[in-house]
Amino acid sequence: MKILLIEDDDRIANPLAEALRDRRYVVETATDGRSGLELAEAFEYDLILLDVMLPELDGVSLCRQLRDRGRTTPVLMLTARDSSGDKVLGLDAGADDYVVKPFDVAELLARVRALLRRGNSQPSPVLTWEKLHLDPSRLQVQYNEVPLSLTPKEYGLVELFLRNRGRVVTRDLIFDRLWCYDADIPDENTINAHMRRLRKKLRAAGAPPDLIETLYGIGYRLNPNLESAI
Predict the structure, then answer these.
(1) Res 222: pLDDT
(2) Full set of structural domains in the chain with CATH
(3) Contact 116, 88 (CB under 8 A)
């Protein structure tokens, strides 16, 4: 299970992320609303833990934007304000549950489990481009119905391209999304090597060589000419 934690207070974010990882959840973090929204739109998560008071973009506005854009990921809001008006505001924005700080970690984890069970009843939509398909609920990628055996980084690249279809995925964005939690910072040759292996696997499944375009000095994108030709 993959959880996005959007919290700007390290005193809360770090122990909470550790508690979640101890229970074998995959946890990614953001410390402001704007970067949290970008992560939530770029990747598939099973649950979002969302602080209300955030820099750049507050949690209520973030949740509302996700719902307006059709994202149904369960959202558990965290707030220091304990009033019925604040709770109603968050729930009206589309949050699924609401926890007041300071919270009991055991209780919060129980609510996390409940929301994850509820969310599992609605499978995530399959992402497609041309004959390329990614099923987030199964962590499976196919091209022309041929399953691809991908490494985690290769899977992350495909997901990043599909969630940004029609847009250029810069190298900086790839670094930020796929290597931001790694101890070793990769260089450009690392991305080039992953892209070569991914393209080789796509071609072996029957994909055209230019399915993923290289925009030299900028980044990559899924070839818009291929989709328009369908």
Answers:
(1) 93
(2) 2-119 (3.40.50.2300), 127-228 (1.10.10.10)
(3) no
Return the closest-CA partner of residue 109 out of 29, 18, 39: 18
Residue 184: per-residue pLDDT: 59
What angle do the packed helices 152-163 and 188-204 form, to 10 degrees?
A: 80
52 within 8 A of 75, measured Cβ to Cβ: no
**In angstroms, rounded to a whole number, what is the distance separating the alpha carbons of residues 46 and 64?**
18
Burial (0-12, 13-18, 19+ Cβ within 10 Å), 205: middle
Alpha helices in the chain (DSSP H): 10-22, 33-42, 59-68, 84-92, 105-119, 152-163, 171-178, 188-204, 224-228
pLDDT at 230 > cutoff 50: no
Q: Measuring CA to CA, which residue among 209, 154, 218, 213 is closest to residue 188?
A: 218
Q: In what order do the strands lie in the sheet with 169-170?
A: 169-170, 219-222, 212-215
Binned at pLDDT 50, 70 and 90, residue 80 comes out as confident
* Radius of gyration, CA atoms only, the chain: 19
Contact 131, 203 (CB under 8 A): no
